[in-house]
Automatic annotation (TrEMBL):
It comes from the Bacteria. SUPFAM superfamilies: Sialidases. Residues 376-419 have a biased composition (Gly residues). This is Exo-alpha-sialidase. Residues 374-451 are annotated as: Disordered.
Amino acid sequence: MVPAGGGNALTLPAHRHAVRIETGNGHAPTWLLAIQQQGAGGEGLNLFRSEDGFQGFSKLAEIQPDASHHDRAELVAVGRDVAMVYAYEGPSLAASSRHDVYFQWWRYDASQDTWTPEPAVRVFNADSSTAYSRALLARDSKGRLWVQAFRLEPDGGATAVVAVSTDGGASFQKQPDLGRTRKRGGGRLLSVGSKLVFFWAMHDGFEPTRMRVRDAADPLDTWGPQRDAFSDGIYHGAALSAVEDGKGGIHLVYKDETERLYYRRFDGTSFGSRILVEGTPDWALQPAVTRIGDALYVFYNHFQTATDYEIRVRVLRNGVFSDPVTLDSRTSFKGYLSTLDVLPDGVTEVPCFYGDAVDANSSGRVMRVALARQPEGGGGSGQDGGTPDGGGVPDAGSGTPDGGGASDGGSGTSDGGVDAGTPDAGSGTSDGGVDAGTPPVDAGTQGPVTLEPVFTNTTHEVLAVDGAGTVYALALDGSRSKLLASTDGGRTFSARGQGVGGASFWVMAALKDGTLLAQMSRSGSYHLERSTDGGRTWADVASLGNYRAMSPASFAELGSTVFFLEYQTFTSGSTPLRLWASTDGGATWAPRATFQDHRHGTALYADTTRSVLWATFGSSSAQAAVMRSTDGGRAWTKVMGGYAANAVTGTVLSGGELLLGQSTLYEPEHPKLLRVYASGRVDALMTLPGPAYSLEALPGGGFILGTARADVGDVQPASDLYARLFTSTDGVTWTEARSYERTTSGVLARAEVWGVLSNGDLVVRADNLKGFGTGGKGFQVLRVKR
């Protein structure tokens, strides 16, 4: 077709270099192809056109004529116009102020039957200390234009950046970064139905491929959490070709780090198991795919020798690949490939473009080859060479998707949750009293399930509510060693008991049979105590040393066993954490399992229907995890890892999934409500205004969720000063029911559901909230109204 400075002129295969446009008015469809000629004939990045599928063609115009700067383009057809981004791409990347990213419209002029460019708009501006490359373009279901690229960092790593235009490409607004890689990155951004799907990987490293998904209805700065797409990485992050499948999913063919080609399908939620496409490994092996209806045409360059490659194609139908068909067997080096992503069924051939040269280091030319086909419904069978043989054996051990990676979630090693800490003991001597004051102002919008304040207490810190509705608390101006109790729904309190040796109460849980378990401290050490008479008398049952509980969710009951998961703050590094178990109602305890690679054990969740125990661990991306056990806590499987796994609250759904509220504090992992499956699949249900700290079932059905206002991190704007409560009848659709303003900056503000009274009213514990007592502490009783 045209001369080029090298056999890899069509870098990258992840890019959409060509489009096909129906111009109407009796004209044949026009095909446009962007080629970087790399200085051949003095040419740079040019746009070529054809009306016969590039059997004949002509140069339409220059895109970026400076041949010393190897920009590559990504094209998207929008009606008869073409939206385009272009940016540098080459085998190496160094900081340069020239490595910017540009967006440009090419508008169709019907009177002249041609395309003319509008002025290019700079989307990302590099300077002498950084560089942008591998720019991708997607247009979402609302017509907004999204540009994604990778920014080179001083340490040699890469950050996946993204910007959006809501004014048709006239301007772009940078959005929160999507991810980070330790080395140079690459990936693919695709518009699929109402979703944008972004997946990416890293150069030269055996790390999982990661992904994020957003829905067009979400706020612009909102993306689903980062998660592992699948366990194997993608060679250079960009040796891939992908196309939406027309059914809300994606066909993906990629080269993994072992230099073999594999196929996976994304079904709209997760990637399935992989199927081998080409098993002869080579550094130059690349795919290019075209979809026609339900058939996927996979072109690739099969290695023979270092200077002899073949262009082959296989066709995927109904989950089965055809035998390979060789389309070009001439002796030459054949480099990066490109195709059109989707073609109509009426086409009679499927073309593929590729670079051709004597060897990988020599100048060459761009070639075209095509696979003849019989259109469906046109009297033929639709077979295109090659008889399906059941080839493409699923690769064992790949899984769907791999949630076990403890890899960096893209937000450094920041703590994913504000440490619960040891509360201040408070001051004064009062042991009770009812606050007849006005409840805090509700700044939220009430939903289908509303929460009506019954009364507000400003003098007590709630510890637990048992099954009979007894409220256990401490006086804010009293001693932490003196337990108080209320049997009238928290309106009045009286002295109930003291811990062994004057121990201080910190965290308490009430078991189903009324037994109380408390994590306490005495002489600088933590331990568990137990009471079977409503807190009147207590007995030491386990010594914890420096370890303690984070919240009542540190305890769980499963069958006849009670569990306790340790939490610690004496080191920022990973340290052994014990899961304790008691088979006699908490009277005696023994370690059931020890976790070695974590810092904070944050919560336990019991699935009594399936005898499954879930556990969450928080802090850095390497330490955070969601774990699952099916044998009573003896053996554990990591279901979700990375910074996104930070969570301190959740509940098990009727189907066995875990409804989990993220406590992440650092972008781009904005906190969300997740539905986590045992398989590792993760669905993002709702973006949260702040980290989640309580999630409970509502009396009569539904759920209530509490979010905090944290000054640590960057997920909350300075103008948002509220902790909130949300309600839902189905766990999917949520409505803000109440909000409470923070009292003091620099301190975590929380409104947490701490228990349910016998009449169904909720007890909501307050910390650092206006309208409450010392330190913004106290509690409020809320009535659930439907």
